[in-house]
Write a structure and sequence with these properties.
Helix content is 51%, strand content 12%. The chain has 313 residues and is an alpha/beta fold. The protein binds NADP nicotinamide-adenine-dinucleotide phosphate.
């Protein structure tokens, strides 16, 4: 075959023949959408735990086959995604282990990597390539209606290969993520958990906490908090509206990194408290100036919009 024929062939053939999505919430359904758009799978098999979610996924036409048993969904799959809360990864891996095809790539999208490796690895059969992953892309929405094909566009996906990860399988998974529009980085799981601890887990914890503090205030009514939320509070409420099961599991499973970062955070907060108490304006000004620079760098890196109010109309 000449180059042009090769190219035409490559354009028609999906990247993977058979992909299984275990979990069809925000991330699973977004994967389904982008796989269709980019012709990444010849057949998409979807599995959820509950019947209503599976039924809704069917109404949305996310997959080609639908299963309440995850083991059924992974039969014959070349690529298997675990898109369930971090605490459910181990039991799901145990359930599907016997049905995985030799040579298949098994990956996940969990927000914590150390615990997923700990919980999933013992169940991975010989000949199956387990490559943990985490797309740094999300919204506060969950469920099969929340997904959209552009979710991963220009976002980073971190893969945390294991010591014996097969290079060919890793390259195929990287190609998959790049085809979704994502950029791919690889790093050690422990480092991932520390980095995401500060960029994602701690901010969510602070958001959950500030919303709880506001709700519990005696001298400011809840209706005042809501009415005047545009002062900054509402930006925390977006984070604090995220799925409670997912975030419970994140904190239970990234305990060490979060506790370490929380210690640092509380020290820094005490320094701020002290600066306010003693009227140290210069200290406050310097710190706030530095934060502004970081915001600018996030925008320059294409990870947010410079539009006022995050582009809200
Ligand atoms: P989601 O929208 O809440 O969907 C979760 C899916 O997992 C649903 O299909 C649900 O099925 C299934 N599920 C829940 N508990 C389960 C259990 N115990 N056993 C088997 N299946 C179960 O969640 P998501 O936002 O897509 O998150 C999925 C994964 O992606 C999580 O590990 C999360 O850490 C990670 N992640 C999330 C984000 C984000 O911003 N949301 C970003 C990056 C990575 P039923 O509806 O039938 O229960």
């Amino acid at each position: 075959m000449n180059d042009a024929a090769n190219k035409a062939n490559a354009e028609q053939r999906p990247m993977f023949d058979h992909v299984a999505l275990i979990g069809l919430g925000l991330i699973g359904s977004s994967l389904a959408h982008v796989m269709r758009r980019e012709n990444l799978a010849g057949h998409i098999a979807g599995a959820t735990r509950s019947e209503p979610t599976l039924k809704r996924a069917g109404e949305l036409g996310l997959c080609d086959s639908y299963h309440l048993d995850a083991a059924e969904a992974v039969k014959g799959a070349d690529l298997v995604f675990l898109n369930v809360p971090v605490g459910a990864m181990g039991p799901v891996a145990e359930r599907i282990a016997g049905a995985l095809k030799p040579g298949a790539i098994l990956t996940d999208v969990g927000s914590v990597k150390g615990s997923v490796i700990r919980d999933v690895s013992p169940h991975v059969p010989e000949g199956v390539h387990f490559i943990p992953g985490h797309p740094i892309a999300g919204t506060e929405q969950s469920g099969p209606d929340a997904g959209f094909a552009e979710l991963f566009e220009n976002r980073w996906c971190i893969l945390t290969p294991l010591e014996n990860t097969d290079e060919g399988a890793l390259e195929r998974l990287i190609a998959f993520w790049e085809a979704t529009g994502a950029h791919v980085d690889t790093m050690a799981a422990e480092h991932h958990d520390l980095v995401l601890g500060i960029t994602s887990h701690l901010p969510h914890l602070i958001a959950y906490n500030i919303v709880a503090t506001a709700a519990d205030l005696e001298d400011v009514t809840e209706s005042e908090v809501i009415k005047y939320s545009a002062g900054g509070f509402r930006d925390f409420t977006r984070l604090a509206a995220s799925d409670p099961v997912m975030w419970r599991d994140v904190f239970l499973n990234n305990r060490e990194a979060v506790l370490e970062l929380l210690g640092r955070f509380m020290e820094d907060l005490s320094a701020l408290q002290r600066a306010i108490r003693w009227g140290e304006g210069e200290k406050l000004y310097e710190l706030f100036k530095r934060s502004r620079r970081i915001r600018r760098e996030i925008i320059e890196a294409g990870q947010d919009t410079p539009a006022p109010g995050f582009g809200r109309r």
